[in-house]
């Protein structure tokens, strides 16, 4: 029979034990050991095993329960819930039940019992206890009025906040129904929603309604109602929350009156009014707002998006982004300037401003009102001012370029003159050499005269708004630059590969073009390589957009663009430690190119050379 009991215990997942008290010997079943995560041979059969498993804080309770069982000679049962330590270190709850089955007079000799793991049950009880306590605290101490209402409308339980709100004591409210203290004009709407909740048409509802206070006063409340049902889905009671919104309602009433006056004043001053209802997804545009773009009131509905569709495509993304940012609380105010299409297809500039005047229960914007002001004339004046400033800026740049051309180009010619004159006056120069130098002098003189002529043209340009241009042969200007730099080319044995087509001609400023080409070729010579023969390749291009220009590529020392890329065309910026570098050539070149709508691009690697691509048109 005893074995049968053991089998039953094992099948019910209970671990049994059999303790021989005088021998300090305990027989633990396999299920007992498995409860704590141990195998059959891992726990010794002694009372010390039991003592080591129990959580120390629970040991006194266990000992006291055992003592009472012994002293009462078994009349007081041994049954207790205590905590034990699992093999994995976790804590488990165990219900321990036992009974002394053999006595020697008053001394217990043998005791049997079982252990059942009740951890899940304990967790459920603790969770429920916490949940109930949390609900009680939330109910009693909530700053919002909370009530439990029967399905008939009678108050079952009320908290302090709702009593303070209505001026009744808890005992007084318990004797009433919500129907008795609801304003008559709001009762029907409340009862309708209540019935829909009972019929499971809705899960609950929210309503703004008025209540009658004990002193006869009226308050506005935001009411939230939910329903509690039993397992059979039978309604038990309603849980209601009441938030006093009397102050807000009074403010809204004042605001509406203020809005009426504001709209009247705004319309009188020529501005238009719009009113966006985010709750109902509608928008109102005043008559003045629509007449601003040539529309009548019957030509514009209250569906949002129509105004957005008329906003100029280039302005629409920012307009929408600004509105959304304000609604989402990402900006403190809404203001946007955009162009909007009129009925006749033209565009007007509008200054659009708005402000939230109502919020919903979640403190999200519910209503925004704003104004539209026609600023087309102001925008046109701004555009004229910008154009004037651009003209002045362009003229200043051209004057600056002219000063640089004078100092840079004339210095080159003067330097060549000095060098040639020094050689001519040198006593060791023979007649043949003097004859050759005289030829060079004539050529330099001719080029200087041409440069001065071009500079004179630049001077006359400064009195006009447009740079004077002419059709020029690109190859001729490259040949002139090569001739001007002939001494340096010969001295450094520079290989010039000139691929410019002879027939290539385009419209450009002669003075600027001479300076641009000369600067780029002279730089290529100046920053030549020392480990190979210097080579400069000159070529022409015309891209898919019909833009024309030229390329100057060399095999020189190169430029570290990662380090100097942003400063490459800056004034007085030098990069290679050359004593003769003044950091002005590339600055001049870039300004001259851009003055006529061109651009310059550069590719370079240290030790491999540099390529300048110049768009002249």
Provide a descriptive summary of the structure in words:
This protein has 20 helices and 22 strands. Strand 14 (347-359) and strand 15 (365-374) form a beta hairpin. The chain starts with a helix and ends with a strand. Keywords: Kinase, Phosphoprotein, Transferase. This is histidine kinase. Residues 78-130, 205-257, 334-387 form the PAC domain. Residues 28-73, 131-201 form the PAS domain.
List keywords for this structure.
single chain, 617 residues, alpha+beta, 5-stranded antiparallel β-sheet, 22 strands, PAS, His_kinase_dom, transferase
Number of helices: 20
Q: How would you state the average pLDDT, rounded? A: 83
Decide which structural class fits the backbone: alpha+beta
Count the beta strands. Answer: 22
Strand order of the largest sheet: 2-1-5-4-3
Proportion in helices: 40-55%
Report the major sheet. 5 strands, antiparallel
Percentage of β-strand residues: 25-35%
Distance between the termini: 111 Å
Low-confidence stretches: 460-465
**Rg, please?**
49 Å
Overall body shape: elongated
EC number: 2.7.13.3
Catalytic activity: ATP + protein L-histidine = ADP + protein N-phospho-L-histidine
Keywords: Kinase, Phosphoprotein, Transferase
Enzyme class: transferase
């Amino acid at each position: 029979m005893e074995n049968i009991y053991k089998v039953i215990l094992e099948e019910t997942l209970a671990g049994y034990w059999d303790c021989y008290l005088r021998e300090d010997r305990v027989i633990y079943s396999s299920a007992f050991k498995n409860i704590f995560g141990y195998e059959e041979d891992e726990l010794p059969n002694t009372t010390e095993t039991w003592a080591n498993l129990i959580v120390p804080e629970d040991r006194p309770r266990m000992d006291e329960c055992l003592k009472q069982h012994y002293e009462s000679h078994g009349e007081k049962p041994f049954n207790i819930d205590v905590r034990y330590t699992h093999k994995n270190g976790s804590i488990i709850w165990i219900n321990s039940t036992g009974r002394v089955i053999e006595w020697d007079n008053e001394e217990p000799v043998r005791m049997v019992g079982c252990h059942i793991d009740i951890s899940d049950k304990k967790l459920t009880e603790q969770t429920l206890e916490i949940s109930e306590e949390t609900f009680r605290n939330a109910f009693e101490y909530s700053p919002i009025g909370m009530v439990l209402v029967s399905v008939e409308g009678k108050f079952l339980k009320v908290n302090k906040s709702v009593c303070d709100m209505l001026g009744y004591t808890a005992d007084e409210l318990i004797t009433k129904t919500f129907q008795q203290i609801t304003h008559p004009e709001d009762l029907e709407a409340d009862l309708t929603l209540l019935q829909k909740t009972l019929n499971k048409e809705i899960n609950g509802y929210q309503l703004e309604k008025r209540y009658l206070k004990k002193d006869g006063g009226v308050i506005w409340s935001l009411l939230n109602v939910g329903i509690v049902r039993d397992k059979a889905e039978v309604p038990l009671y309603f849980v209601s929350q009441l938030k006093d919104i009397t102050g807000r309602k009074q403010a809204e009433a004042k605001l509406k009156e203020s809005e009426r006056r504001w709209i009247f004043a705004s319309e009188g001053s020529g501005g238009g009014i719009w009113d966006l209802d985010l709750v109902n997804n509608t928008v109102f545009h005043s008559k003045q707002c629509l007449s601003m773009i040539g529309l009548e009131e019957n030509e514009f509905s209250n569906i949002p998006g129509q105004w957005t569709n008329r906003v100029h495509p280039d302005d629409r993304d920012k307009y929408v982004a600004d509105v959304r940012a304000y609604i989402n609380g990402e900006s403190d105010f809404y203001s946007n300037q955009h162009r909007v299409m009129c009925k006749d297809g033209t565009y007007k500039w509008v200054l659009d401003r708005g402000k939230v005047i109502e919020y919903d229960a979640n403190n999200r914007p519910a209503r925004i009102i704003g104004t539209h002001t026609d600023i087309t004339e102001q925008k046109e004046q701004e555009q004229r001012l910008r154009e004037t400033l651009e003209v002045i800026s362009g003229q200043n740049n051209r004057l600056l370029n002219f000063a640089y051309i004078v100092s840079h180009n004339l210095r080159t010619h003067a330097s060549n003159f000095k060098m040639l004159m020094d050689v001519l006056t040198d006593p060791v120069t023979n007649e043949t050499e003097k004859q050759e130098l005289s030829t060079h002098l004539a050529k330099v003189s001719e080029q200087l005269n041409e440069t001065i002529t071009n500079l004179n043209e630049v001077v006359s340009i400064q009195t006009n708004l447009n740079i004077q241009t002419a059709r020029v042969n690109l190859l001729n200007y490259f040949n002139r630059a090569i001739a001007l730099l002939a001494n340096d080319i010969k001295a450094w044995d520079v290989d010039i590969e000139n691929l410019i087509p002879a027939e290539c001609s385009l419209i450009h400023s002669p003075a600027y073009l001479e300076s641009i080409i000369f600067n780029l070729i002279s730089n290529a010579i100046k920053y030549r390589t020392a480990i190979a023969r210097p080579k400069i390749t000159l070529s022409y291009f015309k891209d898919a957009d019909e833009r024309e220009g030229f390329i100057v590529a060399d095999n020189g020392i190169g430029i570290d663009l990662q380090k100097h890329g942003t400063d490459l065309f800056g004034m007085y910026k030098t990069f290679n430690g050359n004593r003769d570098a003044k950091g002005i050539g590339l600055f001049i070149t870039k300004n001259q190119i851009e003055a006529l709508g061109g651009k310059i691009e550069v590719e370079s690697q240290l030790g491999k050379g540099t390529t300048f691509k110049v768009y002249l048109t």
